[in-house]
Sequence to fold (333 residues):
Amino acid sequence: MREYNVAIVGATGAVGETMREILASRDFPVNKLRLLASAASAGRRFSFKGEELGVESLNDDSFAGIDFALFSAGAAVSREYGPKAAVAGAVVIDNSSAFRMEPQVPLVVPEVNPQDVKSHQGIIANPNCSTIQMVVALKPLHDKYKLKRVVVSTYQAVSGSGKKAISELLEQARAQLGEVLEPEVYPYRIAFNVLPHIDIFMDGGYTKEEVKMIEETRKIMHLPKLAITATAARVPVANGHSESINVEFEEAVDIADIFRLLKSAPGIELVDEPAAERYPMPILATGKDTTMVGRIRRDDSVENGINLWVVSDNLRKGAALNAVQIAELLVTG
Ligand SMILES: NC(=O)c1ccc[n+]([C@@H]2O[C@H](COP(=O)([O-])OP(=O)(O)OC[C@H]3O[C@@H](n4cnc5c(N)ncnc54)[C@H](OP(=O)(O)O)[C@@H]3O)[C@@H](O)[C@H]2O)c1
Fold:
């Protein structure tokens, strides 16, 4: 079997470290792995499949001989180096928001629109973490009952803001029991608080995170007119995003059938046993590759409505795993 030269840009970050782990655990056919980060990290060492690898400082020559360049170093780095990596011959799989809404760039969730990878011109975008877990849950339901309207509210873990945010939550949580610490990553204290604010505010009062969920869902599902609204909140959870999703369908729904569809859908784990107090939670989803769906119930306030509670590991399915699955689609054709 052919092996590929792979580069991780942002290899020292929360997503980059998860990518290294997932490439190894899924036995992706790696010939050579190149770990790239800022100059500050050059020389740091990490192991990959028993081999010690040094981190290199990202530069214009980093992509010579690279087949797949997995970017997770923020949108500014992707905008500067993504096109350079593609010109050097690599297929870029980008975790940032830099290219997601560009018409010629496929935005791919392998369980939802795998066919879209075929149209790539060197760059493929990985959707926003909250969008990915939502569309994994919506796709099998849309195929049968046709989405009419979606209302989503998120409860997003701090790992979605990178390594510094995880430290900030843990340090503040400790400090709340003693001294007061000033916030750095977020505008307000995150420990023992909820921030209805992820990314910047846009016209109309939505945040950019909410706009991403709306626009990306329409693009991935090829439903440009889908009625969908979102509220995104940051909660003091280290890892694992939760979502309350209210869905209205065109067709009359059968709740028992909704359970069956979700149970057999790819990438989904049904966790819905109220009598046993079993439902999806970040502490269950962390470290797992599945998108957990539970609290499934009819919404009697509208025709053909249901409610879902969806939880997934944002560093895995929300970022690193989805990126590696896209590379696998290209490798297996
Ligand atoms: N966290 C999530 O759940 C998630 C989900 C989906 C998408 N994403 C996206 O993935 C990206 C990374 O997120 P993260 O959570 O992993 O952040 P992070 O923990 O802060 O890591 C950032 C990484 O980018 C590197 N980097 C920063 N500036 C650089 C530069 N100028 N040149 C080269 N490397 C540079 C850092 O290297 P140093 O260590 O050397 O600074 C580090 O490896 C972001 O675009 C984010 O939006 C994140």
Remarks:
- Residues 10-16, 37-38, 40-41, 58, 72-75, 77, 95-96, 129, 159-160, 162-163, 314-315, 318-319 surround NAP (CB under 6 Å).
- The two ends are 13 Å apart (CA to CA).
- The longest helix spans residues 129-145.
- The chain has two domains: 4-126+319-332, 131-313.
